[in-house]
Structure formats: structure tokens, C-alpha cells
Amino acid sequence: MAAVKFAPVLGSLVLFGVVIQIILGFQISAGADELIGTHLLIGIIGLILVLALTALAFRGKSTPSYAKIIMTILTLIVLVQVGIGFQLLNGADALTLSHEANAFVILILSLLMGAVTMKAAKKRVQTPV
Questions:
Q1: Residue 17 falls within a domain, yes or no?
Q2: How confident is the model at residue 22 (pLDDT cuts 50, 70, 90)?
């Protein structure tokens, strides 16, 4: 039962972090290189939060299968995002557009996961026990 309470909080943190990451990423693209460390740290924390959310989704008995699929896709895309980010740090500037596009895919999937979580929570409240 405690896992159910943590999921919305972790999901909110992920969504907030994605928005901050997009803002920081565009600032870095504009030349604010001093923000790279912060961007990197938030990205790694975000990866850990997404992994935790995915683990909660798979441990929850009432978690719909489509939520597990969304979380699996989100986890894979975040892993790719981190990989592209490290490639960018090593000078692979051609990957900048992919990194930016992935950020918006992560944002959309995070919003979708939030909607799925809210829908599932409403169903649980409306279902008589």
C-alpha cells in the first residue's frame, strides 16, 4: 500500500524535473556551459526516479499492463537520453537535436503516465470495496 502513495509523488518529481531539464538544456545550447553539471546531476536523479517508478509499477498488483508498458518505454528512452547526453559531453554535437527531441518525448510520456495514474486512482476510489 505504501507504494501507491509514493507513485504520484515520484511521478510529480519526474515531471517537474523534465520541465527543468528542458529549460536547462536550452540554456546550455545557448552557451550557458556552467549549467552542464546541474543538468547532468538532475538527469541522473531523474533516471533513478524513473527506475523507482518502473519498479513500483511492476510490483503493484493493480497496476494496469498498459501502465507497465508506458513505464518500460519511458525507462528505455531515459536510458537513451542519458547515453546521448554523455556522448554530447564527449563532443558529439551532431546528437544535440536527438537529445532535445528525446526530452520532449520524455515530457509527453511523463504526462501520459500521470494521466494513467490519475485514471487508475479514480477507478479505485469509485469501485466499491
A1: no
A2: very high
How many CB atoms are closer than 10 A to CB 106?
A: 23
d(CA 33, CA 117): 36
In a domain, 97, yes or no: yes
Cα separation, 21 vs 69, whole angstroms: 24
With cell 546531476, the residue in question is: 41
Q: Specify if 109 maps to a domain.
A: yes
Q: What is the pLDDT of residues 66-81, one digit of tens each?
A: 888 999 999 999 999 9
C-alpha cell of 74? Answer: 519511458
In a domain? residue 30: no
Instruction: Spell out the SS3 assignment of the chain.
Output: CHHHHHHHHHHHHHHHHHHHHHHHHHHHHCCCHHHHHHHHHHHHHHHHHHHHHHHHHHHCCCCCHHHHHHHHHHHHHHHHHHHHHHHHHCCCHHHHHHHHHHHHHHHHHHHHHHHHHHHHHHHHHHCCC
Non-local (6+) Cβ contacts of 65 within 8 A are none
